[in-house]
Amino acid sequence: GEPSNQWREYQGAPTGTDLECEGWRQEAALRMLNNNLDPEVAEKPEELVVYGGTGRAARSWDAYDAILEELRTLPDDETLLVQSGKPVGRFETHERAPRVLIANSNLVGRWDDWEHFHELEAEGKIMYGQMTAGSWAYIGTQGIIQGTFETLAELARQHFEGDLSGKIVATAGLGGMGGAQPLAVTMNGGVCIAAEVDEERIDRRIETGYCMEKVDDVDEAIERAEEAAEAGEAYSVGVHVNAAELHERFLERGFVPDVVTDQTSAHDALEGYYPAGYTVEEADELRESDPETYREESLETMERHVDGILELQDRGAVAFEYGNNIRGQVEDHREERPWPVSGSEPDERQPFDFPGFVPAYIRPQFCRGKGPFRWVALSGDPADIHRTDEAVLELFPEKDHLRRWIELAQDEIQFQGLPSRVCWLGYSTEGDEELTERARFALRINELVAEGEISAPVVVTRDHLDAGSVASPNRETEAMKDGTDAVADWPILNALLNCAAGADIVSVHDGGGVGIGNALHANNHVVLDGSDLAAEKARRVFTTDPGMGVIRHADAGYEEALSEARESNVEVPMATE
Ligand code: NAD
Known about the structure:
With about 575 residues, the chain is an alpha/beta fold. The protein has helices spanning about 25-35, 60-75, 115-120, 140-160, 180-185, 200-205, 220-230, 245-255, 280-290, 290-315, 325-335, 355-365, 380-395, 400-410, 435-450, 490-500, 530-555, 560-565; strands spanning about 50, 55, 80-85, 85-90, 100-105, 170, 190-195, 215, 235-240, 260, 320, 370-375, 420-425, 460, 470, 505-510, 520-530. It folds into three domains: about 25-120, no CATH class; about 140-350, Rossmann fold, CATH 3.40.50.10730; about 360-565, Urocanase fold (3-Layer(aba) Sandwich), CATH 3.40.1770. The chain contains 18 helices and 17 strands. Nicotinamide-adenine-dinucleotide binds near residues 177, 195 and 263.
């Protein structure tokens, strides 16, 4: 027979109002799966890889075909089961139940590591689902830009009275995700200096409007950045230099940026991070000829890099790690070699003396059930998303920050695949005693679909990185107040509750973002087709789902979560205050 992983000429999701399936809920699943594999959306659609290393939408092309076949014939009262990207069963349930249930990459605790996973993967028995790849909810780079924008906005609220104008953010790494940093800084009104060793990456960010200028010289970058900051202008510059050397030059000059962070691929010392003292070509050759030396040099550069961040922090910069595990890498390496290598005197500083981005900037939002809520127009018509943009601003006129994001997104973000939008909304029932922010907005979209102002149903979904849906001790649940970083009951309860509340697709995955064995997480989709049933589902799901964020953080003792629970009447049976 045919090889199961043959290349497909791939066109993306069907659009318009003609259905291939028996109802919009099944059709939505089919379109979202296909949208994940749209060549504009996916990194390597021919291998079914959507993003994030090997995050796949289906296990094989045969499994993909079989999923589509099942969805096309699935009635309104049956539920399809997908196990690591393969359809494995179908049962009669009922109309209010999910149409598709998905579990990806999960292993039992003692076996839950890459080694065992890779053995099973090689035999075609499991698939890496990442977060939104295997759950059919990826929307391209808009998600990462918005996450970076929100993180910087929260940083600005905490340290700079809500605004980055006149402030200089120094970072490194202009790759797939890191490339969003300069744009997210300028969207917040600030100035960005970003070190990148690979000149082509800087050029690509300039071509696509993510970064404004390129220079080779750190001093020149500092001068331009200071000029822009003094004038209060938004500005970004990519510097063709290694991150460790950027910081060392800053320190020699006595220059201290307002904020320092990093998004080089430090999580992988061999294939992600570049050692100082080599051009990209020389380093690529070294990696081939002598991987052991490469790895060692790479880790030594990371030590200099982290040492620089810590010294800048001591001199007054706000420092945070952006989820690339550079602190963990340096901590592990210190056991092999004394540290720091760049300073003359070893000192008391530790890599974990600067915080990760979740405890520092995201957790206060998680406490209020806020997270990356997103929606997709199944019509394929951008006008439908523009109508939802208006609707969200009409509903929440007091949210200046939301208005800024939506206006900037309209100007600067090109749709990839099915038109979509992302914004952070939470649990708050302020302004409407009965309904959460998320529920109010979803119900409004449902009305617009019913009235024909939006031309076809809209799917509402979210990232797995959300308030009450993930356990990930190196990232989303780093340094929880009560030490429950690794407790994974919460994402399981989240998935179960999403089913009980009637979401249309529910998924549970292992290993998203930080790798197999390091995280469990869940997500949901609700299809807003304008019906009363959709309204009922939306009201329940968009109350219970952000509500999980509030109770999870209230249980851990966070004051913001306890006050959200009080203000919005969330029942927390044994709350201790
Ligand atoms: P990528 O591999 O596409 O890009 C990394 C870039 O860093 C490359 O362009 C590379 O040339 C550059 N680089 C490597 N070493 C360097 C050095 N020493 N100095 C200067 N430049 C260097 O990766 P990506 O998708 O952009 O992700 C970057 C990192 O951020 C990853 O570790 C990823 O896991 C992490 N990340 C975390 C989150 C999160 O937690 N929310 C989000 C995005 C990315």
